[in-house]
Amino acid sequence: MNDTSPNAAETPEGTEADVVCHARGGAREFDVIVAGGGLAGCAAALQAARRGKSVLLLEKSNALGGLATIGLINLFVPMCNGLGKQICFGMADEFLRDSIALGYDTLPPEWRDGEPAAPTHARLVTRFSPWIYAMQLGEKLSAEGVEILFDCAVAQPVMDGSRVRGVVTLGKEGLRFRPARIVVDATGDADILRAAGTPVRTRGNYHTWLTYLATLESCARAAEEGRIGAVYGSHFGAGTVNLYGDEQPADVPLWSGLTAENVSAYLLRNHRETLGKLRALAAERGRGTFDIAQIPMMPQLRTTACLDGDAVFRYGEDTVYRHEPDSICAINDFEHRCHLFEVPYGTICRRGWPNLLTAGRSASADGFGWDVLRVIPPAILTGQAAGEAAALALDENRAVSDVTVGTLQRRLEEDRVMVHFPDSYIPEGRPFSFRGATHQSAPGHF
Ligand SMILES: Cc1cc2nc3c(=O)[nH]c(=O)nc-3n(C[C@H](O)[C@H](O)[C@H](O)COP(=O)(O)OP(=O)(O)OC[C@H]3O[C@@H](n4cnc5c(N)ncnc54)[C@H](O)[C@@H]3O)c2cc1C
């Protein structure tokens, strides 16, 4: 047996894991444990389950979807090239369509029935009801065989050298060791990677914290227009800084999001500042004319920590329109029309950590590349690839870095992922800009 494979299960006596395991009576081993039920984690869990693997999805909150649902970031950024060609397919397309199957949407009519026949500047982008979709995700994943534990935080991985034996969770039952053959870190903050000693990159966050405000006016407008989504009007909050850091207040630090103290300071400051704005509103319009309809139930932090992987996704003139031999998905730039990229497999794994994968916000990236890779559609696609890679590593009995990339790509293509974009989509002159002429800000605070 290849001793770096995920199936190499012999373990030394008397490790910390044994202690926890014996103390708690042990839990059953899963083929794949996915830590974190954001959209990346949901995609990873679903893909591994669809390949016949036993999958446990651990989520510390009470609903699935992560930032996209409980974090109130209920907007799929554009999934097309800005000229009418869809780029993000696979589970990104499946999840977008699911998210608007029951609740409201803002999908342009051009995209209602799939890719439009004629070129268009209308982008494939939509809002959705975060709470309805959160429940739909739980229903879908359960129906497809993923076991889900809510209110169950991963406290730490249990390591045997650089191989993960499983994770210790903290739930109502206390600490529990849960063994797994492969672990996918989809916590968004690289919680498991960091504890496993995997190299990571970190970045501070601008001051963003947005709620949904309902007013008598927004309710009247919703009734008049027959659009329930209009009740919430626009985002309302204290930190309204965009992803470029424009108008970052000089007296506010960049938030790391990596300690309870830092997250708490971020939340308390934003709560205080938001209450200040509400007091001003009350003075102007009268108490009882508005309410905070929804508050984000997780910190709205974009980039905290990500893997420093076998490959790093970068944004620039040298990477735009470039084919990557080990691509796991083609993605578009949500801010700049035409820009196309491919995401190397090495962004979700690191050689030397044989049974650990990541996806979503913690996939390996740098600079503005991190912003392009972390948003909802690419996060779903790296999640889908992580689930597929986990299944393949188990089938081939290899370390995750050593799976047969051609097989991985073929399987993803069979599941409708665009692994390589067609050359015909590369615009003449290969235009590239950053916040320049082709800058196409879509609605929202990405
Ligand atoms: C302010 C802001 C605006 C944004 N705007 C947009 C936008 O308009 N459109 C867009 O497409 N994207 C946007 N994004 C990005 C997008 O929301 C996320 O990057 C995307 O949803 C990727 O999610 P993820 O699954 O990787 O991580 P997350 O959504 O963060 O999911 C991580 C999940 O793991 C859980 N978790 C964390 N730690 C643990 C643990 N130890 N144990 C168990 N569970 C754990 C969390 O509760 C959460 O459910 C924005 C992000 C921010 C912060």
What would you note in describing this structure?
There is one protein chain. This protein is an alpha/beta fold. The chain folds into 2 domains: 343 residues, FAD/NAD(P)-binding domain (3-Layer(bba) Sandwich), CATH 3.50.50; 87 residues, no CATH class. The chain has 10 helices and 16 strands. The strands form 5 sheets. Strands 1, 2, 5, 6, 7, 8 and 16 form a 7-stranded mixed beta sheet that branches. Helix 2 packs parallel to helix 9 and helix 9 crosses helix 10. The longest helix is centred in the middle third of the chain and has 26 residues. It is globular, with a radius of gyration of 22 Å. It starts with 15 loop residues before the first helix and ends in a 32-residue tail after the last helix. The C terminus is likely disordered. The site of flavin-adenine dinucleotide (FAD) has 38 residues, from helix 2, strand 3, strand 6 and helix 9. Flavin-adenine dinucleotide binds next to helix 2, strand 3, strand 6 and helix 9.
Strand content: 15-25%
For the record, the CATH architecture of the largest domain stands as: 3-Layer(bba) Sandwich
Instruction: Identify the overall geometry.
Output: globular
Any idea what the CATH superfamily of the largest domain is called? Answer: FAD/NAD(P)-binding domain
Q: Rounded to an integer, what's the Rg over CA atoms?
A: 22 Å
Question: What is the average of the pLDDT values?
Answer: 92
Task: Point out poorly predicted stretches.
Answer: 7-15, 441-446
Number of helices: 10
CATH topology of the largest domain: FAD/NAD(P)-binding domain
Number of domains: 2
> What is the number of strand segments?
16
Please write the CATH class name of the largest domain: Alpha Beta
Structural class: alpha/beta
The end-to-end distance, rounded to whole angstroms, is 46 Å
Which compounds are bound in this model? flavin-adenine dinucleotide
Percentage of residues in helical conformation = 25-40%
* N to C succession of SSEs: HEHEEHEHEEEEHEEHEHEEEEEHHH
| Main pleated-sheet profile | 7 strands, mixed
